[in-house]
Amino acid sequence: MAVRKRITASGRVQGVWFRGTTEQRARELGVAGWAKNRPDGSVEVVAEGAPDAVDKLVAFLHEGPRRAEVASVDVVDEEPEGLSGFEVR
Question: What is the DSSP string of 40-82?
Fold first, then answer.
């Protein structure tokens, strides 16, 4: 049973390889979806997959890559759409 979450990470999350490491981690975990920068300086991520794998990705987003300074993470549950693969937008 797949789950889908829309995650918004705020803080120093742009220009620190946040989306790239999110893509790498998602692929390692078998999570589908995408990551993109938002105009307000946050990063938006949609993650779809097995509940434990999506939870592990969300946990990673609370930390981010080494140079990131994550101030807050907002997580919203959504209905899965059957996404495949993970991309940086």
Answer: TS-EEEEEEE-HHHHHHHHHHHHH-STT-EEEEEEEEEE----
